[in-house]
Design goal:
- The chain is mainly β.
- It has a single domain, classed as Rieske Iron-sulfur Protein, CATH 2.102.10.
- It contains no helices and 14 strands.
- 25% of the residues are buried.
- The strands form four sheets. Strands 1-13-14-2 form a four-stranded antiparallel sheet, with no helix packed on it. A four-stranded antiparallel sheet has the order 3-4-5-12, with no helix packed on it. A four-stranded antiparallel sheet has the order 8-9-10-11, with no helix packed on it.
């Protein structure tokens, strides 16, 4: 089993087969409670899941966003790192796919997105039914 996260928030549900996803392209899915999520297969074979709702346009469109990377400078002893990103197809804000943190708010309010833990099991994508707690303790 390959897991992207240290611990899943909520129980895990099967979303699809990994083979159903196209690299660097998003797919929309729905959790059992009706929450819409966007699922992305990255070039390195890992999978990320975030909320489908774009907080800037209030539209369920993030699965149509652009996947990329962003270089984050290290501070103090912390080394520089490269993180996977998602840019909104509507107004082009960008988020860190690992944390949901806003990397570019386009000059507006900094609105993070919810990130869901993902596990790959027997060729299938399983996603947590609740988002991971955000930095600062919010889910």
């Amino acid at each position: 089993m390959t897991t992207h996260a240290t611990g899943a928030a909520g129980s895990l549900v099967r979303i699809c087969a990994v083979a159903d996803l196209a690299p660097e392209r998003g797919a929309a899915a729905m959790l059992p409670d009706g929450t819409q999520i966007a699922v992305f297969l990255l070039d390195d074979g890992s999978v990320r899941a975030v909320q489908q709702l774009d907080p800037y346009s209030s539209s369920n469109i993030l699965s149509r966003g652009l996947v990329g990377t962003h270089r984050i400078a290290g501070e103090g002893e912390e080394p520089e790192r490269i993180v996977p990103t998602l840019s909104s197809p509507m107004y082009k804000q960008s988020w860190d796919l690992d944390t949901g943190e806003v990397l570019d708010s386009g000059g507006g309010e900094r609105l993070p997105i919810a990130v869901f833990d993902v596990a790959l099991q027997d060729g299938d994508v399983h996603v947590a039914t609740a988002p991971r707690a955000a930095a600062g303790g919010k889910a």
